[in-house]
Amino acid sequence: MIRLTVNGTPREVDVPDDVPLLWVLREELALTGTKFGCGMALCGACTVHLDGKPVRSCVTRLREASGKEVTTIEGVAATPMRVLQEAWALEGTPQCGYCQPGQIMSAIALLRAKPRPTDADVDAVMSANLCRCATYVRIRRAIHRAADMLAAPPPDANKP
Amino acid sequence: MTGELGRRDVLRYGLGAGGALLVQIALPGCRPARSAADPHAGDFVPNAWIRVAPDDRVAFVLDRVEMGQGTMTSHAQLVAEELEIDPARLVVELAPADRAYDNPDSQLGFQVTGGSTSVSTSYDPLRTAAATAREMLKAAAARRWGVGLASCVAADGEIRHPPSGRSARYGALAADAAREPVPPRAPELKPASAFTWIGKSVPRLDAPSKLDGSAVYGIDVRLPGLHTAVVLRAPALGAKMKGFDAAGARREPGITDVLEVPTGVAVVGTSYWRARRAAALVKVEWTAGTTSLDSELLRRALRSRLARDAHKMRTDGDVAAAEHASSQIIDAVYETPYLAHATLEPQNATAIVRDGRCEVWAPTQSLGLAREALRRLTGYAYDDIVLHQTLLGGGYGRRLAQDYVVEAATIALRTRKPVKVVWSREDDMAHDHYRPMSAHLLRASFARSGAVTSWTHRVAAQSIIAQIAEEWGQSLVPNRFPLSFKRAAARAAATAYAGNAVPDMSAVEGARELAYAIPNVSVEFAPVNVDVPVGWWRSIGHSNNAFAVEAFFDEVAREAKRDPFELRRELLAGAPRQRAVLELAAEKSGWAHPPKSGIFRGIAQTTAFGTAISMVAEVSVEGRHVRVHRVVAAVDCGRVVNPDLVATQVEGGIGFGLGAALHQEITLRQGAVVQSNFHDFPSLRMVEMPAVEVHLVASDAHPSGIGEPGVPLVAPAVANAILRATGSPVRSMPLLGALKEAR
Ligand code: FES
Ligand code: FES
């Protein structure tokens, strides 16, 4: 039995500890927002956060997540980082959409590390996530837009 | 997904509380979805696309799959326009298999999404369907209120009677509208000047669910008791199984079945990871396969085929006489490799086949082909084959083939279990239906004045249609004909294509329509049919031919000592649409002014899927390193339903095409596909994505295609920039490989 916390909820799973976290999430915990694209840490579709750090869940063994906090795309809406989802929609980013959960998880980590990333910062981090529909132009714009939204004071902060 | 979730028999998307998309999925045993005419009491179902329920849910049945190209949104806009309702209020349901949803395109003719036809073929029918529904709702209101029909208006989801101030929501009128006669004549459609939704960048309706993880792709389908199968496949084309030993695998926990299927050995278990782990323990022996299928040998065969005459696909004037009279002739051979589609969602499908009924959930581009294939497999009546579309994690033409659907149903049939088959990336890469490898001979002659007097283009490639005609033909024939007739008709068609008695126009599209005013033109096709599975790859023949045509054109311009834009412009005098997009791309890119030092520009234009398009690429070359900084595209796709969706299709097409142009190649060595995953079949990464500008030509012509036309021009535009930068042409894709060879 392995214990981990997923999107804030403690979970227990009874599978061998070397099963990739991706399949534990998708099949044991029914969290199918995290996607399978390559299984070799090449595409980023399976990106989730482990104690806040982005990992490729297809090559992360369950035991590496043992006792840790896992955040998946399904958990984003409950955090301030939901603005990325808003920015993504405002920029009309997703096409087929299959890569986008992974893109958003990578971008959240980027904005945590660099709240005001340059284009070069964005390219450096986000080039690990493939988008076969090549929505890159919109992803770039959405990241900058999300950075603006995160930096903006809350709507009533300027009121006397 | 639990039992309570799915009640209806179609996947459903709609705005729920808080703006989240609701997604529901059917459960087995529910009543089959035979058409949209699946009304509950009191529903108003005027046709196959629209259903209004008494609770005021207005459902729209989307019959063109959503694979990223935006049909869910564009088509909702078409309905909304005539139905007088906000498209965001429409509940979009994904259509089941039904011949009511056959693609009206003259060359397709069954239920299929492809050929960039979705908007052009739905533009009139969907608006007419919505207008009919609106008129019936109006008639119901007029009757209820005892007022004249002409005094009622539809607006914002309700019928209003302005003189009395009365109004009723569509839902409140549904039961009455269902009793109204269908208007004898199709209602008149709104003039463009009255459009509210068409022409507007309505936000994508599918965006929220695709950003919060709730969107259901084929691979996400969950059913009670669902098993997952993985298949150990042949290591080479033509390899036959000699035998296998699965004793170890069968002992693994959660493994329920290991069986031989036509595609290999299927390992079935209670989850993907269990099946995958067990599969590693299966030992399979294979024969060597068709070792003659080898890229180097095939490449040589195609090149040597170029030396001989081929089928004439277009003949203008007399090329031989023009060449005889010319003062100069140049020629070149262009080549393109096999390409995989590599949809990010690997192939998969889910099936239940038992008790005389076959139910399938699949991310397929064609429920029409899928149903026909399942009928061949099971022998069941059409009504007992129930299909559900899911969202598609990319299509690009790959999902026009139904191999994964048939495989899932085969395993489900044999095991009597609900089974989802999931391909690995390696399966997907090595068992695709590839874009055909091609070789192109191009030759041009010049008069002493420098004028181009003749153009010859000979294409040598596999014919896609010859390979698939048998399967496709069976789906085209109406269902009332017996299977044996369908089979015979389709076989005859395949034979006709294979012998070029009926030419495969897709092989020369983008070559045959050459728009340049050159008096003598010969376009020829030499089919070289080998047993490599080939299929439609986003933009099909255009992706090969536009590269050869437009890159060779710059060699011609160089020979004539002309600016490549100016020469194109001059030779497009008789093609005003093409000339307009060419001029627009040149203008917006600043063609008249020299680029920054170290940057070189290339230009290209073509017409694909009815859309005239031109691109300018700005490129720098350092050694073998090519960087594309900016691409400016000008597009005339007729009337635009959603400008932002059009822009995204062109941006994405450029990125998709650029990845292929620079990097991608599927090679065969002794019958085996060499590439296996994204490390050796590299897709474009963000760092390589140029800045893209898309400029649309305002037009009130009927809409034309946009899902594919963005793809083919980026390769020649970049190749032409490289020619300017280095002085030597790059004549084969991938361009980086060609550059390496040239140095
Ligand atoms: S599936 Fe994990 S990186 Fe591709
Ligand atoms: S949106 Fe399709 S793969 Fe990224």
List the helices and strands and how they pair.
The complex is a heterodimer of chains A (160) and B (743).
Chain A: E1 2-6, E2 9-13, H1 21-28, E3 47-50, E4 53-56, H2 62-65, E5 69-71, H3 82-90, H4 100-113, H5 119-126, H6 136-151
Parallel strand pairs in A: 1-5
Antiparallel strand pairs in A: 1-2, 3-4, 3-5
Helix pairs in contact in A: 3-6, 4-5
Chain B: E1 12-15, E2 21-24, E3 50-52, E4 58-62, H1 71-83, E5 90-94, H2 118-145, E6 153-155, E7 158-161, E8 166-169, H3 170-177, H4 207-211, E9 227-233, E10 241-245, H5 247-250, E11 255-261, E12 264-269, H6 272-279, E13 283-286, H7 295-305, E14 311-316, H8 319-325, E15 328-336, E16 348-354, E17 357-362, H9 367-378, E18 385-389, H10 403-415, E19 419-422, H11 425-430, E20 438-446, E21 452-461, H12 464-476, H13 483-498, E22 520-527, H14 540-559, H15 564-571, H16 576-589, E23 600-608, E24 611-622, E25 625-636, H17 643-662, E26 668-669, E27 672-673, E28 691-696, H18 714-726, H19 735-742
Parallel strand pairs in B: 4-5, 9-19, 17-18, 21-22, 25-28
Antiparallel strand pairs in B: 1-2, 1-5, 3-4, 6-7, 7-8, 9-12, 10-13, 11-12, 14-22, 15-20, 16-17, 16-19, 20-21, 23-24, 24-25, 26-27
One FE2/S2 (inorganic) cluster sits between chains A (94-100, 131-133, 135) and B (68, 344, 394).
Query: How is the CATH topology of the largest domain in chain B named?
Result: Aldehyde Oxidoreductase, domain 4
**Count of helix runs of chain B:** 19
User: Would you count the extended β strands of chain B for me?
Assistant: 28
Given the helix and strand composition of chain A, which structural class is it? alpha+beta
- Give the CATH H-level superfamily of the largest domain in chain B: Aldehyde oxidase/xanthine dehydrogenase, molybdopterin binding domain
List its salient traits.
heterodimer; A: 160 residues; alpha+beta; Ubiquitin-like (UB roll); DNA polymerase, domain 1; 2 domains; five-stranded mixed β-sheet; 6 helices; 5 strands; 37% helix; B: 743 residues; Aldehyde Oxidoreductase, domain 4; seven-stranded mixed β-sheet; 23% strand; globular; disordered N terminus; binds FE2/S2 (inorganic) cluster
